Amino acid sequence: MVGGRPVLASALESELKRRSGGGLAADKDRVLSELIDLEAAYAKAMASGFLDSPEIQRAIRVLVAERMKESHAGELQADPGIGEERARALYLANTNRFVRPAAWNVAVIHVEVPRKATPDRKAAFMERARALRARVARECATMSHFGPVAAEVSADQSTRYRGGELGWQTMEQMKSRLDPEVATAALQLSAAGVLSEPVVASDGIYLLKLMGRRGPQLRPFDEVRAELDHELALRARGEREARWSRWVRDGLSVAVLHERLAKVEVPTTETNRPGPPAPMRSP
């Protein structure tokens, strides 16, 4: 007996059986001592009003709800599972989501022009760009990119040592990577090997060469399978939660006081942000 409340032999036997599940015999006296401490702590919590605190009451409700959900998991499950058949059906019903957008692979040569250059100097740089275009038309005619000429003259450090090649870029990536005038000119190149006229941009003059262009492509099922499985898992979890919510509320009257609900304020991120640290004290 602990404070007038019994620690039953059945409780001790149940705990001994649970702890002996791993094949090792439990110490009966030690287990009993722990049950006594548990009952004593509970008695103190009741006597002090600790159990009545909102935090503890919520913790008790959460524990009970979770254990109840676990005990009814079988009847609430009813999941068809993920599996390849469901994943493929989701894929076929949403092929528009898995289309890889059109992309361009363009080589660039950047002739840097000082922003404060005089009109005469700008005209000289344009003549240089035109001469450079004639040179690459001769020397790089059999290449898909600008070859060693890019390494020699281009100011674009990220591409000059690979023939000026940007790599495959979607329209959005192209517009993000290049000045608007340059991106527009690149997207207008009609066929692989086509060389642009010099394009004036805010940071200089560009020569462009289309290396390749591909239209929109449907990503294969195997490539997006993990994404499909994840989506199906999220759907299954949502369906389980909905079944649990319907089951647990069945037979109970639930009324939401919307007028009172409207007055409940949700704390903002700023409200939850911790205050400044306390000032340091000198030793």
Spatial arrangement of strands, main beta sheet: 3-2-5-4
Q: Can you write the helix and strand succession as a string?
A: HHHHHEEHHEHHEEEHHH
CATH topology type of the largest domain: Chitinase A, domain 3
Describe the global form. elongated
Distance between the termini: 54 Å
CATH class of the largest domain: Alpha Beta
Q: What structural class do the secondary elements suggest?
A: alpha+beta
Helical content band: 40-55%
Strand content: 5-15%
Per-chain topology:
Layout: H1 9-19, H2 28-48, H3 54-71, H4 73-77, H5 83-93, E1 99-100, E2 103-112, H6 119-139, H7 147-153, E3 165-170, H8 171-177, H9 180-187, E4 199-201, E5 204-214, E6 217-218, H10 221-249, H11 258-262, H12 269-272
What does this protein look like?
With 283 residues, this protein is of the alpha+beta class. It has three domains: 1-52; 83-95 and 219-249; 102-215, Chitinase A, domain 3. It contains twelve helices and six strands. The chain has helices at residues 9-19, 28-48, 54-71, 73-77, 83-93, 119-139, 147-153, 171-177, 180-187, 221-249, 258-262, 269-272, and strands at 99-100, 103-112, 165-170, 199-201, 204-214, 217-218. Strand 4 (199-201) and strand 5 form a beta hairpin. Helix 5 (83-93) crosses helix 10 (221-249) and helix 8 (171-177) packs antiparallel against helix 9 (180-187). It is elongated and about 105 Å long. The two termini are 54 Å apart.
